[in-house]
Amino acid sequence: MYKNYFKRVLDLILALVALPFWLIILVIIGPIIYFQDKGSIFYNASRLGREGKVFKMYKFRSMKMNAPDLRNEDGSTFNAEDDPRLTKIGKFIRKTSLDETPQLLNIIKGDMSIIGPRPDLPEHRDLYEGNEERKLEIRPGVTGYNQAYFRNTVPWKERIQNDIYYIDNLTLWLDIKIFIKTAVSVLKREDVFITENSNKSRNNTGIGM
User: Fold this and answer.
1) Residue 20 lies inside a defined structural domain of this protein
2) How far apart are the C-alpha atoms of 111 and 37, rounded to whole Å?
3) Does 209 reside within a domain?
4) Suppose 132 and one of 102, 126, 128, 200 were both cysteines; which one would form an S-S bond, judging by CB atoms 3.0 to 4.6 Å apart?
5) What pLDDT, in 10s, does the model give residues 53-112?
6) Residue 174 is part of which domain span?
């Protein structure tokens, strides 16, 4: 009942309640992003949604306009605190996770949930093996089991299995625990950027987000 119905109702109610507060963030952060390099405020990224549907995931732009697409050795997205592509405000909104807040609009649209597996790139679907496509059974989340407990410290393949564990054990209580744990991790700014050690472990898996 919760997984198939009440979860969506709760997402919508909480997103609508949070919308006025996010508009305040937009009014403050938006102009700063724009005036640093006169570029767009948002970055719209194609992502895999429920049942494999591709959607546009909204984020505040944290990188300079026309920044190159840098990748790690394993093909994963380069993500480091000293990334030269980040703007000054971009480094701040990455550290505080404010860059993810526009996904509130994705929740209202029905593309995403507050809690769920973080969405993969569309091309990642071709790399799924065995039961890994099961992570597409539910809406992806703004945060999730991996983000709450591991952030950027576990390999991509391990994150997928964690996502499947979450789907198989999805309850309101689990979502509450993930939400609280995420809030604590964000406030402490834990594991926001990928470290050298986590890159080495991810090189053993093939690819990451």
Assistant:
1) yes
2) 30
3) no
4) 128
5) 999 999 999 988 877 666 555 445 556 667 788 899 999 998 888 999 999 999 999 999
6) 2-202
